[in-house]
Write a structure and sequence with these properties.
alpha/beta; TIM Barrel; eight-stranded parallel sheet; 8 strands; 40% helix; 17% strand; binds pyridoxal-5'-phosphate; PLP-binding_barrel
């Protein structure tokens, strides 16, 4: 199957039912990305700053780039001039840094707060209590150049559907609760980013509004072209 064919099939399962499709292009070549672009795809996700910046410089300017990986505070300044969404915000420190550079770039930057839902100990993100604490924090409330548009989560890397479903359910409940308590009148708080190639169907059943899909579009990631330290 070609990239264009893969996208066409996926759109029926996502955009056709009102779910945004982020094409995760990490490690993939610019020509692969252009193939998806020619097929109409405009939202692409990357997880390393250097790779993201290099691609954004060379590829069409109407691409909306999403940062979906762990972001170090010292790298924030490289992406703030152009990034469309930072989907992986996991600390107040990072939010303050994004706000500072957004101000310099005279922008308001859309962000998702990453929530820790998986069993694994290694995943980044807030737990429920930390999330509520953040949303009540005076320092957080002062940040005027960021806009919190929703939540993001990564389910456990398991083939136990029940476990994955329960994690997505939990995140959806949390999203509804946060929306009702903190963003009732803010229409922009409407993104629940959950689901990747292996679990996007479950995620959509559980209320996802944005899926991040790589290998189902571009094929397996075999070679890593970029250093893994950013
Ligand atoms: C790589 C990645 C994806 C996409 O993974 P696939 O299994 O290739 O669909 C989604 N979300 C995040 C945060 C990723 O790092």
């Amino acid at each position: 199957m070609s990239i264009a064919n893969n996208l066409e099939t996926l759109r029926l399962e996502t955009e056709a039912v009102g779910v945004q499709l982020v094409a995760v292009s990490k490690t993939k070549s610019n020509s692969d990305i252009m193939e998806a672009y020619e097929a109409g795809q405009r939202i692409f996700g990357e997880n390393h700053v250097q790779e993201l910046v290099e691609k954004a410089e060379l590829l069409p300017k109407d691409i909306q780039w999403h940062m979906i990986g762990h972001l170090q505070t010292n790298k924030v300044k490289y992406i703030t001039p152009f990034i469309s969404l930072i989907a992986s915000v996991d600390s107040l420190k990072l939010l303050k840094e994004i706000n500072k550079h957004a101000q310099k770039a005279k922008r308001t930057i859309d962000c998702l707060l990453q929530v820790y839902i998986a069993e694994e100990e290694t995943k980044f993100g807030f737990d429920h209590a930390e999330l509520v604490e953040l949303l009540r924090d005076d320092e957080f409330l002062e940040l005027k150049n960021i806009r919190i548009c929703g939540l993001m989560g990564i389910a456990s890397n398991t083939d136990k559907e029940k476990v994955i479903k329960a994690e997505f359910y939990e995140l959806k409940m949390l999203f509804d609760g946060i929306k009702a308590s903190f963003y009732r009148k803010e229409e922009y708080f409407n993104i629940l980013s959950m689901g990747m190639s292996s679990d996007y169907k479950l995620a959509i059943e559980e209320g996802s509004t944005m899926v991040r899909i790589g290998s189902t579009i571009f094929g397996k990631r075999v070679i890593k072209h970029f250093k893994n330290n950013d």
